[in-house]
Amino acid sequence: MSLTSAVMKLEEAKVSEPVLSMFWDAIYQTLYLQYDTNQDFMPQFQAAADKLLRLSEEIMKAQPPAHQEA
């Protein structure tokens, strides 16, 4: 799964705005600010993306089930 589809899945699950905002902040911090310029970029990027995907999965697990109207 890509980060784009992970965010879409969180939005579809009606994750609260504060949680989505924190996830976007985590994406920014992880993908744009946490790199060692003395190392190859792509392995660092892939590790960061994998970490964020795991975080999105944990958010989904913690998300209470949506109330369904009858």
Characterization of this structure:
- It is a single chain.
- With 70 residues, this protein is an all-alpha fold.
- Helices cover 70% and strands 0% of the residues.
- It contains 3 helices and no strands.
- It has helices at 3-12, 17-33, 41-62.
- Helix 1 packs parallel to helix 3 (41-62).
- The longest helix has 22 residues, at 41-62.
- It starts with a helix and ends in an 8-residue tail after the last helix.
- The mean pLDDT is 87.
List the helices and strands in order.
HHH
Shape: elongated
Share of residues in helices: over 70%
Which regions have little confidence, pLDDT < 50, spanning 5+ residues?
none
Strands, count: 0
Largest sheet: none
State the end-to-end distance.
Answer: 32 Å
Arithmetic mean of pLDDT: 87
Helical region count?
A: 3
Radius of gyration: 14 Å
Q: What proportion strand?
A: under 5%
Structural class label: mainly alpha
State the gist of this model:
The chain has 70 residues and is mostly helical.
Search tags:
70 residues, mainly alpha, 3 helices
Protein topology:
Elements: H1 3-12, H2 17-33, H3 41-62
